[in-house]
Amino acid sequence: MSTLAYLKSFFKDKDVASVTPTSRFCVRRVCQPIDFSKDITVVEYGAGAGVFSRYLLQHMTDDSHLYLFETNEILYDKLQQIKDPRVTSYDQSVEHVNDLLPKDIIGQADFIISGIPFSFLDPDTKSSILSQSYQLLRVGGEFLAYQTSGHLEDSLQDTFGNVTTDWEWRNIPPMTVYQAKK
Question: What is the CATH number of the domain that holds 58?
Fold first, then answer.
């Protein structure tokens, strides 16, 4: 994806946390827990220009589904170039994710992948998004996130009761990778 699109978005939108797309190394690291041989439902927060989305679609079964959330207009326009019947896109905030998604998805999502900059959010908004994420996932479902620091660990521990962290150094900037299971 175009670094130029990310640069434009970074300077125009206070909620965009990166000047470059996520590296293929980080994408693979975050997606490591996903069993792509099964039909899955994935919700992606902060889909950007579709780096994760395209990777997921290359590996997902035909009966899987991907729900994308992106509020930045420039990046959302890039997402609209993805023409795949398994994709549903929203140009709205995940602050109300459980009100926006179809009701039959609540409690049934297999994975949530999140690149939204939680460090930019006030504590109540962060807590609300994580609580809704917990409700959105099926039992055994996983919240997979990547952030520029370790700030999300305590919040995930509070919400999910478990969290593991790892680092992906081959990304600019390096990312902390989180995994929490419902």
Answer: 3.40.50.150
Characterize 149-163 residue by residue with b for buried, 16 or more Cβ atoms within 10 angstroms of its Cβ, and e for exposed. eeebbebbeebbeeb
Q: Which helix (H) or strand (E) holds 29?
A: helix 24-31
pLDDT tens, residue by residue, 82-95: 999 999 999 999 99
What is the number of domains present in the chain? 1
Q: What is the domain extent for residue 177? A: 3-181
Count of alpha carbons within 13 Å of 119, Cβ hemisphere only? 13
**Model confidence pTM above 0.85:** yes
User: Mean pLDDT across the chain, nearest whole number?
Assistant: 90
